[in-house]
Amino acid sequence: MSTTYNIYIDESCHLQDDDSEVMCIGYTKINQDDYFNVKQAIKEIKLKHKSPTEIKWNKLSMSRWEMYKDLIDYFFESTIEFRSVLVKNKQNLDQIRYNREDQNSYYYKTLKVLLNNKLPHGDNEYRVYLDFKDTRGKTRLLLLEKELNAFHNENSPFKYFQHIHSDENEFLQFTDLFIGAICYKARKKHLKEDASPIRAKVINYIEECSGYLLDDATEPLETKFFIDDWVIKAPSPIKPLSNE
Question: What residues are paired with 84 via a beta bridge?
Answer without folding.
Answer: 26, 227
